[in-house]
Amino acid sequence: MIEQAPRQTPPRDQLRLMLVDDEPLARQGLRIRLAQLNGVSVVCEAENGRQALERIATHKPDVVLMDIQMPGIDGLGVVKALCADPRLLNNLPYIIFVTAFDEYAVKAFAAEALDYLLKPVDEERLLEAIERARKMLKQRHRAEQQQQLRQLLARLTGQRESELANPEQQAEQLAKLTRPRKLVFKDGHTILRIAQEDIRWIEAAGDYMCVQTAEETHVVRTTMKKIETEADPAVLQRVHRSTIVNIQRIKSLEPHSNGEYFLTLDTGKQVKLSRHYRDKLEQLQQ
After folding, report:
1. Maximum C-alpha span of the chain
2. Options 2.40.50.1020, 3.30.565.10, 3.40.190.290, 2.40.160.60; which CATH number does 182-284 get?
């Protein structure tokens, strides 16, 4: 958890900036570069999407420099939530994406005339982005940027802009958008990013979890509850108090006499579906 150090209120003519990145060193690098610029002040930071949404509402920064690839709610998920918030309709912060995305995504940013910084961040490009933000905010072009953000989301997700703007579909679309493709685990001193589709099953082993992929078993320090919160239920489902399985890998489902079921995965692995998780049965049988 980031400790928010007390900050002095910046003068009104200064841009109030917020940094969002799950890597502390990345935030520190931006902070050092921004400290050398005139007329800007970093008023808050966040290390994930949920913190970003909370602190944008609290601190109301003018500009948000935000990483895209973060565990949990990623940068695009934050943007989706901001665009769906009627309170921010005329007061959306200016977003500058910080990305290591591939060429396709970079072209999407360029096509919608949105600012992005490629990692590692170049000082000249950073200054250029800040100055453009200052100009856009001065000219009150927030609504224009909000439309550009919607167009970017539509381009990257394949959704229609009307779907992104439809309140009845926003909750479902946001859930799909903010689920990470990869889960992040700590294995000793190593940070692992494992695609959910590559996970066969996860089992509890005391204070640790054994994450089984096709190639190897990773022993990681986390909890079942945390994995459940972050996992895409269309891929990973908890079927027992100590087991999560990739439901796309289930080969057969056989009832047991005591009301439990045995699941057989395509690897031959058998696991129990306990009575407590029988509400998952309908989805598993689809």
Report:
1. 73
2. 2.40.50.1020
Tens of each residue's pLDDT in the chain, 286 residues: 454 444 554 445 689 999 999 999 999 999 999 999 989 999 999 999 989 998 998 899 999 999 988 888 888 888 888 877 766 656 778 889 888 766 655 665 655 547 788 888 888 989 999 998 888 787 655 556 666 666 766 666 666 655 555 444 444 554 554 455 788 887 777 888 898 999 999 999 888 899 999 889 999 988 888 888 788 887 898 988 899 999 889 888 888 777 778 889 998 999 888 877 776 655 555 5
Q: Which of 33, 17, 18 is nearest to 121 (CA)?
A: 33
Radius of gyration over alpha carbons of the chain, in Å?
22
Domain spans in the chain, listed from the N-terminal domain onward: 15-178, 182-284
Q: Could you say which of 3.40.50.10490, 1.10.10.10, 3.40.50.2300, 3.30.70.100 is the CATH number of the domain covering 15-178?
A: 3.40.50.2300
What are the Cα distances from residue 42, in Å, to 93, 121, 122, 204, 229?
Answer: 14, 17, 18, 41, 31
Q: Distance between CA atoms of 74 and 21, rounded to whole angstroms?
A: 10
